[in-house]
């Protein structure tokens, strides 16, 4: 999945660059994206961004829909990750002594004053490590397939939006280039939001996959360190 991760990162960068380029094109485009406070100099560019109420509502709905799908679709992935974390972290509890869960149904863990998690990796024994690596590999295999499909859907949704934008742009025969851009933006708002929704789904999946990869890598390194340590201790006994 590393190859797909590189490509996906490239697509994400392209999407962000496209938004930046569009903001720099014209005043009409700036108005369309609701950017307030645009300051530009030869040395640097500074954007003060503030959402309008209607845009905040759309964004909140897209995020809520994406979070709901992520929560319901990746239940087994969340359980596999939290099962590993449960061996080394301290769950946060409410005033009634009940474990606290976030909006995605994941356990909320206690943190230190610097924001890092309260963790004790020494609590893991050999069985815990082997079991965690096995479960993480299963989750990784399952998620990799889904992440690939979500990536393809996000890219395809982006292509649909681009095609509709070009069709709308060419359909307006009169007016300036700014008028045609503004018309195309308004005409393709629904497909643009849908493409962003698909991007949010893929992004959530990709973050999960990276979390699994990182956690599995840590587990494998701990296992390797302990094996080396054990071999070193055994070799000293015969000296």
Can you lay out the helices and strands and say which pair or pack?
Elements: H1 2-23, H2 27-32, E1 38-40, E2 45-47, H3 53-73, H4 75-85, H5 126-171, H6 177-187, H7 189-237
Antiparallel strand pairs: 1-2
Helix pairs in contact: 3-7, 4-5, 5-6, 5-7
What does this structure look like?
The chain is mainly α and 239 residues long. The chain has seven helices and two strands. Strand 1 (38-40) and strand 2 form a beta hairpin. The longest helix is centred in the last third of the chain and has 49 residues, at 189-237.
Q: How many H/I helical runs?
A: 7
Task: Provide the succession of SSEs.
Answer: HHEEHHHHH
Task: Characterize the biggest β-sheet.
Answer: 2 strands, antiparallel
Please state roughly what percent of the residues sit in beta strands, choosing from under 5%, 5-15%, 15-25%, 25-35%, 35-45% or over 45%: under 5%
Strand order of the largest sheet: 1-2
- Output the radius of gyration: 24 Å
Overall, the morphology is elongated
Give the beta-strand count.
Answer: 2
Mean pLDDT: 80
- List unreliable stretches of 5+ residues: 1-8, 22-38
Distance between the termini: 46 Å
By secondary-structure content and strand pairing, the structural class works out as mainly alpha
Considering DSSP H and I runs of 4 or more, what fraction of the residues is helical?
55-70%
């Amino acid at each position: 999945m590393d190859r797909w991760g590189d490509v996906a990162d490239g697509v994400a960068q392209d999407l962000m660059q496209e938004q930046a380029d569009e903001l720099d094109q014209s005043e009409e485009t700036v108005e369309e994206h609701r950017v307030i406070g645009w300051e530009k100099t030869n040395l640097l560019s500074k954007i003060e961004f503030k959402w309008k109420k209607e845009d905040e509502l759309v964004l909140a709905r897209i995020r809520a829909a994406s979070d709901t799908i992520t929560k319901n679709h990746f239940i087994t992935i969340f359980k596999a990750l939290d099962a590993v974390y449960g061996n080394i972290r301290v769950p946060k509890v409410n005033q009634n002594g009940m474990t606290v869960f976030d909006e995605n149904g994941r356990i909320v863990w206690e943190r230190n004053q610097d924001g890092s998690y309260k963790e004790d990796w020494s609590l893991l024994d050999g069985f815990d490590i082997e079991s965690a690596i096995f479960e993480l590999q299963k989750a990784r295999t399952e998620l990799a397939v889904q992440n690939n499909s979500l990536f393809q859907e996000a890219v395809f949704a982006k292509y649909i939006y681009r095609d509709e934008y070009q069709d709308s742009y060419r359909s307006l025969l009169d007016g300036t280039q700014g008028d045609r851009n503004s018309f195309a933006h308004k005409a393709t708002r629904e497909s643009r939001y849908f493409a962003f929704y698909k991007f949010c789904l893929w992004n959530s999946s990709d973050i999960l996959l990276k979390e699994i990869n990182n956690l599995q890598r840590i587990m494998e390194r701990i296992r390797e360190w302990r094996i080396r340590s054990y071999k070193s201790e055994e070799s000293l006994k015969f000296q």
